[in-house]
From TrEMBL:
Organism, scientific name: Paecilomyces lecythidis
A Pfam match: F-box
InterPro entries: F-box-like_dom_sf (IPR036047), F-box_dom (IPR001810), LRR_dom_sf (IPR032675), TPR-like_helical_dom_sf (IPR011990)
Domain (F-box): residue spans on this chain: 155-202
The name this protein goes by in its record: F-box domain-containing protein
Gene3D superfamilies named among the record's database cross-references: Ribonuclease Inhibitor, Tetratricopeptide repeat domain
Length: 590
């Protein structure tokens, strides 16, 4: 039919124009049918939903599902309660059997291989239509049929996997993720709840909201009361007391990390009989005195690690540490209160630390951490070390305490950290010899105004891998001395020289030339500029290129290959220099 004939038909019988489009569709002339349906919509005929439905079906024949879905959504928008339900064919006579917008949209999505979206569309239609709609049952039938078909295509992995493999998979999730899996389905909830080994460790540290005692009790029940590891955190205040009581009744408890507020004597009364405890960590919200600390050590014979971050002094007559603690491997004490010296044992009291009499009582101690807070108030505690007390010590961490003598360090020491401490008398490391601490790998000296390049030279060993000298004011002189001290460890991988005002571009260049094994460098709050980032980035790219080409790398031609760089507070570094460094592969923290 010519265009003039179409116009004549439109003038004489506009409704016939729509029928002509249907005729074109049936004859397979889909492109012309689209044109006719579009013109029909412009005429504003009394049945726009039927025309949209016909055009959507035609778009489907042409494979244009996006435009087809647009028309279907327009049908729904035009009349959400329209009840046209023709489903036998794609194009039907408008006066007898048109498709509803929900049905058309669902069919389009199925043709476009999106059955999940089609199911959502059917569900949306059921939610929108009134319950007594005369054609609702047809939409319900399509929804149930598609849902059943999709369910048959998917299999629950836990139905297919052997139980041992399913447990191995589930153990890869942390506790918060395991709890989230309970909400997948009732079937998963029953399955996960039946696996006692998934609930032996309860860690509340990553909870997104406050946890109630009822939730903790349900976790304990799933473990049949046999949980072994507990991290108590993010508890609602009314639930703290009941939760502690529930946990204290678990007979196999081995690890307890309590990050909640509780009186020290009450906490001791609850957990003194947990004979299987190997790790006991008490946050700074649990005020524990020396008296109850000693009682804990006496009542828990298997204890390997104890941390008390809010320790207080006690009367000397009330404090009694066990004579032998053969299993104890780690002690961490933190304190902030002061008691009279003569009547009380101080908060950081460690029996025998001065004279070495602990050699027989704690022979296997490997980690010792002593921290005084706040650091503004200097500790009255005088730390004097005798290596005979701890012959197997690997880590020594001191913060905010007064130091008398640290020259007699054990040969086994691998990690030494001294933060904001004050020397009493001679410098603590003044008598350290080259033969001492031969296995030292980590040295952290921060916020100490008595550290000098000579001190660094005494402590840096060939085995050293990590060195921090952050906020040590006496290192702000000639950087050549500091670099010379660092060079004693040719394998140094991490260096922190933040807050050193003389660590400029030239000094960093010298560091890069002498410490070629560095992977991590902290230059925060130093006067460097973008030149430092460019030099480190260029050196990295050249080294990467040489390695890719298979070039022979020697100590002479090797260049520094920084992986992580910290430049917080470096006002002289522009954003384009940061972008240049990141483009070279360096992870930069600003």
């Amino acid at each position: 039919m010519s265009d003039s004939s179409l116009e004549a038909l439109a003038r004489g019988d506009p409704a016939g124009f729509h029928q002509y489009g249907q005729k074109l569709y049936q004859n397979g002339d889909h492109v012309k049918a689209i044109e006719v349906f579009t013109q029909s919509l412009r005429m504003k005929l009394p049945d726009p939903i039927g025309i949209l439905d016909n055009r959507a079906a035609t778009y489907c024949k042409l494979g244009n599902f996006d435009l087809a879905l647009r028309d279907a959504k327009q049908m729904i928008k035009t009349d959400k309660s329209d009840e046209r339900v023709g489903a036998a064919s794609d194009i039907c006579i408008a006066s007898t059997n048109d498709l509803q917008g929900y049905l058309r949209a669902g069919k389009i999505l199925i043709l476009n291989k999106k059955p999940d979206k089609a199911l959502e569309m059917y569900a949306y239609g059921l939610k929108t239509l009134v319950p007594d709609h005369s054609r609702r049952h047809l939409l319900q039938h399509l929804h149930d049929k598609l849902g059943g078909k999709m369910a048959s295509q998917f299999q629950d992995p836990f139905d297919r996997l052997p139980l041992e493999l399913a447990v191995m998979v589930l153990k890869q999730f942390d506790f918060r993720q395991t709890v989230a899996l309970l909400r997948v389905s009732k079937k998963w909830e029953r399955f996960l709840t039946s696996l006692r080994e998934l609930w032996m460790c309860v860690d509340l540290s990553r909870a997104r909201k406050k946890v109630t005692s009822a939730a903790v009790r349900s976790y304990i029940r799933r473990s049949r009361g046999m949980l072994t590891h507990v991290v108590l955190d993010n508890l609602s205040l009314p639930s703290v007391e009941k939760t502690l009581e529930f946990v204290s009744r678990c007979p196999r408890l081995e690890h307890l990390d309590a990050r909640i507020a509780c009186r020290g004597d009450k906490f001791y009364a609850l957990f003194k009989d947990c004979k299987n405890l190997k790790t006991l960590i008490m946050s700074d919200e649990i005020n524990m005195d020396q008296k109850h600390l000693g009682m804990f050590l006496s009542s828990l014979p298997l204890l390997e690690r104890i941390e008390c971050h809010a320790n207080n002094g006690s009367l000397i007559s009330e404090v009694s540490w066990p004579e032998k603690l053969p299993n104890l491997r780690a002690i961490a004490l933190g304190a902030s209160s002061v008691k009279p010296v003569f009547e009380y044992f101080q908060a950081l009291h460690l029996p025998g630390i001065h004279d070495g009499t602990t050699a027989n009582s704690i022979p296997n101690l490997e980690e010792l951490r002593v921290r005084w807070n706040p650091r503004i108030v200097r500790s009255p505690y005088l730390f004097d070390f005798n290596q005979r007390g701890f012959p197997r010590l690997r880590k020594l961490d001191l913060s905010g305490v007064n130091l008398h003598r640290l020259s007699d360090l054990p040969m086994s020491l691998e990690d030494l950290r001294v933060h904001a401490c004050r020397p009493i008398g001679p410098f603590p490391f003044s008598e350290v010899t080259e033969e001492q601490i031969p296995n030292l790998k980590i040295l952290v000296l921060t916020d100490n105004n008595w550290i000098t390049p000579e001190t660094i030279a005494l402590l840096v060993k060939p085995t050293l891998r990590i060195l921090h000298v952050d906020r040590c004011q006496r290192l702000t002189g000639n950087t050549n001395e500091l670099i010379a001290a660092c060079r004693q460890s040719l394998e140094l991988e991490e260096l922190n020289v933040s807050h050193l005002c003389n660590m400029d571009d030239k000094a960093v260049t010298k560091l890069a030339e002498n410490l070629k094994e560095l992977k991590c460098l902290n230059l925060s709050y130093t006067p460097i500029s973008g030149l430092t980032l460019k030099a480190l980035s260029d050196a990295r790219m050249q080294q990467v290129k040489a390695e890719a080409e298979g070039a022979v790398i020697t100590s002479e031609n090797k260049l520094i290959k920084i992986q992580r760089l910290y430049i917080r507070g470096c006002d002289g570094v522009a954003s384009d220099a940061v972008a240049y460094g990141r483009a070279s592969g360096i992870e930069i923290f600003t």
